[in-house]
Fold this sequence. Notes:
285 residues; alpha+beta; single chain; disordered N terminus; two-stranded antiparallel ribbon; 13% strand; globular; Four Helix Bundle (Hemerythrin (Met), subunit A); Nonspecific Lipid-transfer Protein, Chain A; 9 helices; 2 domains
Amino acid sequence: MAACVGRTEDGRDTREAPAGLTRRRDVGPDRDIALVAGATERLLTTAAGLGDDAVAGPSALPGWSVGHVLGHLARNADSHTRRAEGAARGELVPQYSGGPAGRAAEIEAAARRPAAEAVADLQEACERLARAWAAMPAEAWARSIDSMGTEMPASEAPVSRLVEVEVHHADLGLDYRPRHWPPVAVAPMLAYVTGRLVRRAAGVTGPEASWHLHATDGEGEWLVRRTPNGTTVDERHERADCAVRGPQSALLAWLLGRGSDHEGRLELLGDAELARVFPEVYPFS
Length: 285
């Protein structure tokens, strides 16, 4: 079943994932909050060992220093706190004050801080978020929150934050890599990212092409089929122009376009060029 596409009168995207590619509305937040706590502890342990030179140095993200990544992680935590507090009041509030431009300005300002300030800022932002989630009434988790101009259920916020923390921890370009992501965290991250794939894919058109994605160490097979009229994503096994097979962590890193960490852990069958361009055709957002 393909994605259902629609928008509200004010232009908000209300596309839903089909059966099998769930938006995880039926998953309570407690497990994901616990995973975020563990990921945050690992991140802060890494950050605590950074000096000023390291924070000013380049990260694995083009154009961003380590300080940019730390600043982004802090401001993303604040965006979760803002939306959680809004959901608790029954209000839909913007993810970032000032939209994308405000987000970019806040990250730039944070990137110029010395290491001690950057790490303290990140830790305090993470602590504020933990308190906000702990204070959320049960009914608030079923409410919608803003996600850069689209909406998602508040119950998805913890796994969204988990992806941010684990992925950008690896983006620091230090010793932590996607292969270090705990399997218990990879499974919900992959479910979330493939669910978002439906949103990214629905409006993508182009020459006919198909991709079969297969997680070999757990549940997960997806057929992505592009046509001149759009793209569909179905959760099933079917022969395609190319196939990408491997463990969940490697498949997740590949879907997120995270460098070469997946090399040697993924098996590419069929049209190798199609496999190479997939993360560019369907970038994660």
